[in-house]
Design goal:
It is built from 14 helices and no strands. It is an all-alpha fold.
C-alpha cells in the first residue's frame, strides 16, 4: 500500500480538526441557547430581572460563537418581556435576516407593523409563514377603504390554504358588494365545499342567487339548508325571510322565456 505524502496527511488532519472544531462550536452554541431558554422560562414565572440577565448573557455568548437565528429569537423574546419594542424589533429582524422562514419572528413583526398601520409590511410577514387567517383578518380591515388590496389578501390566503372556508367567504362578500355576483357565487360555493357543515355558507349561496334574479334557484338552496340545519334557530329565521323575498320576486328572465 502506498503511503500518503506528508502534505496530504497534513491537509487531511487540518480538515478533520476544522470539522471537529466546527462541531464543537455548534454544540456549544446550542448548549448556550438551550440553557438560555430554560432561564428565560424561569424569568416568565418569577419576578425580577435576575433570570432574564442570565438568559441574555447565554444568548449573547451563543452569538459570539456562531451566527444563530435562535439566539436572536431569544433576545427578541426577552425584549418583549421587558416591553422594549425597539429591541424586540431589532432582534426579530436580525433573526429573519438569517432565516426568513422564522414563524414567530414574522408573526410578531407582522403584529407590530399592523399596530403601526403599515399594512403592506404586515401582509408580507404573514405571507412569509403562509398564515391564511391573518391575511383574511388584514383583508377585513382594508375591505372598506382598499377593496382591491383586500381582494389580493383574500386570494393570497386561498393560495396558501385553498381548503378552508373563511377566505372564500370573505372574497365572496367582497365580490357581492361590488356587484360581481357570478364571481361571488363561485366563491360562496367553494366555501360550502370546504365546510358543508357551516349553515351560513348555504345562506350566502341562496341570497346571492336571489340578488342575481335567480329566485327559483334560491328557493332550492334554502329548502336544502332547512333540511340540513333544523336546529339552528337564527339560520332558520334568516332562510325563511329569504324565502319570502324569493317568492315575492318577479320571475327570472329564463323563466319568463319558458312561459312564452
Amino acid at each position: 500500500m502506498r503511503l500518503r505524502t506528508p502534505t496530504r496527511l497534513i491537509a487531511l488532519c487540518s480538515l478533520s480538526a476544522l470539522g471537529l472544531a466546527w462541531q464543537h462550536t455548534a454544540c456549544l452554541c446550542s448548549w448556550h441557547i438551550n440553557l438560555a431558554w430554560v432561564l428565560a422560562a424561569r424569568q416568565s414565572l418569577d419576578d425580577g430581572n435576575h433570570w432574564s440577565g442570565r438568559a441574555e448573557a447565554h444568548f449573547r455568548r451563543a452569538l459570539e460563537l456562531r451566527t444563530s437565528s435562535g439566539a436572536w429569537m431569544g433576545l427578541g423574546y426577552l425584549a418583549l418581556l421587558r416591553e422594549d419594542p425597539e429591541a424586540t424589533e431589532t432582534a426579530f429582524q436580525k433573526a429573519l435576516d438569517i432565516d426568513r422562514s422564522q414563524p414567530l419572528a414574522n408573526l410578531r413583526l407582522a403584529r407590530m407593523r399592523l399596530s403601526e398601520g403599515h399594512f403592506d409590511e404586515a401582509a408580507a410577514h404573514y405571507a412569509a409563514v403562509g398564515d391564511a387567517y391573518s391575511l383574511v383578518h388584514l383583508g377585513d380591515i382594508l375591505a372598506g377603504s382598499q377593496p382591491r388590496k383586500a381582494q389580493s389578501l383574500y386570494e393570497s390566503a386561498i393560495a396558501f390554504q385553498p381548503g378552508i372556508r373563511l377566505p372564500h367567504t370573505q372574497l365572496g362578500k367582497l365580490f357581492r358588494q361590488d356587484g360581481r355576483l357570478d364571481e361571488a357565487l363561485i366563491q360562496f360555493k367553494h366555501a360550502l365545499e370546504a365546510d358543508p357543515g357551516y349553515g351560513w355558507s348555504w345562506y350566502h349561496v341562496a341570497s346571492t342567487c336571489l340578488d342575481a334574479g335567480r329566485s327559483q334557484e334560491c328557493l332550492a338552496w334554502t329548502r336544502s339548508a332547512r333540511g340540513k340545519f333544523p336546529l339552528d334557530a337564527e339560520l332558520m329565521t334568516a332562510l325563511q325571510k329569504l324565502e319570502v323575498r324569493a317568492r315575492q320576486a318577479p320571475p327570472s328572465a329564463d323563466l319568463r322565456r319558458q312561459r312564452f
